Amino acid sequence: MKKTLLLLVFMLILLLFGCMNNTAAQGGVVVRGSSPTEPTKIIVPDSDDIVYVSQSGAKYHTADCPFVDDSFIPVTLEQALQEGKQPCSRCH
Question: What is the number of helices (H) and of strands (E) in the chain?
């Protein structure tokens, strides 16, 4: 029973890794809201262009902001502005 459960878990992990977006698997920036059917140009932004946002927050933060934790998502400043995010008053 334990071997069967272990085998199922292992197969599920392999399946999930097989479905992972190539860009995400290589540690690249995944642009939220882009269509997977459209060819995507991957542009590596300067580190100054990267800000951090939360799923539900209205602010964007720098990497050294005390509010940023592991749940924050790195996005480009341009993308944060397009999503209507405002700068954090503590780190900006």
Answer: 3, 4
CA dihedral 64, 65, 67, 69 (to 10 degrees): -20
- Give the residue carrying structure tokens 């392999």: 14
Sign, CA dihedral 38-20-81-51, equals negative
The pLDDT tens digits of the residues spanning 25-50 come to 555 555 665 555 666 565 555 666 89
Pairing of strands 86-87, 50-53: unpaired
Q: How many other C-beta atoms lie within 10 A of the C-beta of residue 61?
A: 22
Higher per-residue confidence, 17 vs 34: 17
Angle made by CA atoms 83, 87, 89, in degrees to the nearest 5: 150
